[in-house]
UniProtKB/TrEMBL annotation:
The chain crosses the membrane at residues 51-70, 82-104, 296-318. It comes from Candidatus Nitrosotenuis cloacae. The gene is cobD. GO terms for molecular function: ABC-type vitamin B12 transporter activity; threonine-phosphate decarboxylase activity. It comes from the Archaea. This is Probable cobalamin biosynthesis protein CobD. Belongs to the CobD/CbiB family. Keywords: Cell membrane, Cobalamin biosynthesis, Membrane, Transmembrane, Transmembrane helix. Pathway: Cofactor biosynthesis; adenosylcobalamin biosynthesis. GO terms for biological process: cobalamin biosynthetic process.
Amino acid sequence: MIPVLIVVGAILLDLAFGDPRSKYHPTAWVGTLVARFLPFARSQNPTMEKMGGMIVTIAISGVVAALLYYFEFFTLHFTDVISVMAFGIISIILLKTTIAIRGLEQHGKMVMESLSRDNLDEARDRLSMLVKRNTKQLDKNHVVSGVLETTSENIVDGVTGPLFYFGLFGLPGAFVYRTINTIDSMAGYKNTIFANIGWFGANSDKVLNYVPARITGYVMVLAAFLVGADWKGALYTMKSDGKKTSSPNAGIPMAAMAGALGTRFEKLDHYTLGNGTIEPDQTHYKSAILLMKTTCVLFCGLVTIPLIILLSYVGWWIHV
């Protein structure tokens, strides 16, 4: 039951306190490592640059996995109550740093607060820190759409993805997932600077997100039913529009969210998801947050915990 308690504790801790300051966050430490080592992968030869990016990605992920594995392995030698409790508390804190339910709410809330004060320029600036698009010319509707899009997309990156891989591989799984995700967010750009260096990290992120994104989409449909949103619209839009984004995974939860809220997400010159209102507002944002939180809790209860119990039964989780 320890892994189950770790998951529940991490979710509750995140909902209560959110993220620690950046300099204390393990993801920030990983980002620092990536920033320091990626320049060594640069080369005039595109193939060598891809190889360099691959080596950096595997090396950093390997170090992270080893540290977490030996942490878990070390705790096997302690069976007294105090040691087990200490292990559980540290594990809860560590797993919590890989998820960001409250963080998703807070980041979007800052943009919406700017809009509520009719400060569109500030809202654009705040949104630019959340999305990979040029926000300088976006109107109010597209700013709100951007908030709703990033909230729904990051349900996978920031919550259900880490929980899925914790369910399979424990803390090493959750942290390796977040490491790959961090590398992709830093270097997974299709431009002249990162196209080759970030190639391996970006494609690794796509592979790792493939299953969690699709499970999350269906869990979101169930969440929509439970909170009184349009679950039929969520299911229909996820199936019809989920593949319209350049990412094979991001469109799944985004389309499900758009359908559930009865709105339309639009990234100019890239995609349109859903066929509802083109004027999303504060009400849509509040509904999106409720749907996001419900989806995360359901995923924990319907996917992560059953995975842990099943794999514990067959002996996979015996090391924890």
